[in-house]
Design brief:
- By secondary structure, the protein is an alpha+beta fold.
- It has one domain.
- The chain has 8 helices and 16 strands.
- The strands form 6 sheets. A 4-stranded antiparallel beta sheet has the order 3-4-15-16. Strands 12-11-10-13 form a 4-stranded mixed beta sheet, covered by helices on one side.
- Strand 3 and strand 4 form a beta hairpin.
């Protein structure tokens, strides 16, 4: 009997290893399919190659590497964020879960990876390929509240949009993190979706928000002052799985944002009518 019991636990252990090596991630009854890695560019190599690139070339380089599966495995382990609201008509509590990347978009191997900074159009291309979307202002706040690793923002002032500055900022964050694992926040401003894009009469805007301090207050208010191709070291891309679990039912995020009651799960603006960036 002891032998059979040992064999049983050995079988369970082996099966758990098998599934942990799969390139897909199970989110409830949904799955994100990740491409098998086809690239070998590490994070440090990425920044050496991209050092002299302009923003458009750097965007293309990131998209190419990410869509080849050249991202660290930990970035694929999306974390649940739980939120709830009261239905004003019924008084019933509505509970929801959405799933977010544990860190900002990165390129490289498990042993040598780096966070990367790209335009919202490049980010949208990546999000579309992985059935994801970019967060709202409210979601950025909720992610920060749920984060297990909260780090003090480190502003930099010279050559803000240069690739070497982006690399330096990544290294500074890693010096702060000191190997701590889990959902991380406070290290970047998020590129977000917001009604302010629709309201802004200037074309081709990017919206940014966040960079929370340890007191929970964001350095960056919701802002659409930059044209979409302005990308600096402080802007990060957080991927969110596009299907939201609302009271146990899966609903596409656009349908949630279009619903005047459910949209409050994800959005705290007057109107939640901007869903994605065009590219």
């Amino acid at each position: 009997m002891k032998y059979l019991s040992a064999m049983k636990y050995l079988f369970i252990f082996c099966m758990s290893l098998l599934f942990s090596c799969n390139s897909s991630q199970q989110l409830g009854k949904r799955t994100i399919e990740w491409p098998q890695r086809k690239g070998s560019v590490t994070g440090s190599e990425f920044y050496k190659k991209a050092a002299a690139m302009n923003w458009a070339q750097r965007d293309s380089f990131v998209v190419k590497e990410v869509l080849k599966g050249n991202i660290p495995d930990f970035l694929k382990q999306f974390k649940p964020i739980s939120v709830s609201i009261m239905d004003p008509e019924t008084g019933k509590k509505i509970n929801a879960n959405y799933f977010v990347a544990p860190d900002y978009l990165s390129v490289g191997t498990n042993d040598d990876w780096a966070r990367v900074n790209i335009s919202p159009k490049a980010a949208q291309k990546i999000a579309d390929d992985f059935d994801c979307f970019l967060p709202t202002k409210k979601m950025v706040d909720d992610i920060y509240k749920s984060a297990t690793v909260k780090l003090e923002p480190i502003p930099m002032y010279a050559f803000r949009d240069s690739t070497p500055t982006m690399w330096q900022h990544h290294l500074i964050i890693e010096g702060q993190r000191k190997g701590k694992k889990g959902l991380i926040a406070g290290i970047k401003k998020d590129v977000v979706i917001t009604e302010k894009i629709v309201m802004d009469k200037r074309p081709d805007r990017v919206a940014i928000y966040g960079w929370h301090q340890l007191n929970g207050q964001p350095i960056q208010p919701l802002y659409t002052g930059h044209i979409y191709w302005w990308v600096d070291y402080s802007q990060g891309i957080r991927l969110v799985y596009r299907n939201i679990q609302v009271d146990g039912k899966w609903i596409d995020y656009i349908d949630v944002l279009k619903n005047k009651t459910l949209q409050r799960l994800l959005c705290d603006e007057g109107d939640c009518n901007f869903y994605r960036y065009d590219y």
